[in-house]
Amino acid sequence: xxxxxxxxxxxxxxxxxxxxxxxxxxxxxxxxxxxxxxxxxxxxxxxxxxxxxxxxxxxxxxxxxxxxxxxxxxxxxxxxxxxxxxxxxxxxxxxxxxxxxxxxxxxxxxxxxxxxxxxxxxxxxxxxxxxxxxxxxxxxxxxxxxxxxxxxxxxxxxxxxxxxxxxxxxxxxxxxxxxxxxxxxxxxxxxxxxxxxxxxxxxxxxxxxxxxxxxxxxxxxxxxxxxxxxxxxxxxxxxxxxxxxxxxxxxxxxxxxxxxxxxxxxxxxxxxxxxxxxx
Length: 279
Ligand SMILES: [Zn+2]
Fold this sequence. Notes:
With 279 residues, this protein is α+β, with helices and mostly antiparallel strands. The protein has helices at residues 4-18, 41-45, 144-151, 158-163, 173-183, 196-218, 255-258; strands at residues 23-28, 50-56, 59-64, 68-73, 78-83, 94-100, 103-109, 115-120, 262-266, 269-273.
């Protein structure tokens, strides 16, 4: 599932590839996603100009010249392919094609857990998808004081708190594990036992970890005419995620004694951590 860095990478890739172009046609082969594509989606998009690309949490938002915005979520398996011209023969799962005067955006989603809809730009904050979502990890609102206030009365493990999109937007399972490793905090620690100082450290670790991943994605963007979603993903080297039993980076502990990186299940999701470095 794309997390914040992937969405940021895809957004930048689409912006780079088609830019501030005019939408000339929309073809919807399939409208059943996590939510139905609205019946008047095509009507709202056609003959408008793209004026901005943004990321809000894990959504890509494309502002249009008519006061509306496209809201796009790639779900589990969604990809955006970019083609110079309308493909003669659509590929399997090419569900929506947005034709512009500078290339075609093709939404391909085998499992259809993503969504594609629109909203008035000025009402984005009230849209049910974005309402109540926490601050972006890179915003000023997300800081040590804020995180401490959210963690203060919560006995839930800090890892689970970080996955709560109402607390902070866009952090998923991978980067929650990685950021906690960077901060030296065990994912098992009850949130209310994270000190104010550690909250500050954790905010920095979250930003650093996400930024590294964004940079890794961005470094593959040079000739990015087809952001199929795969390229930016794997350049980022995880420290603990999916590395059960291995040494963590810079680790000098005795693997025989410590067992290396541990895996635990929390709220149905896997967490990975080094029990020596993370307390
Ligand atoms: Zn270690």
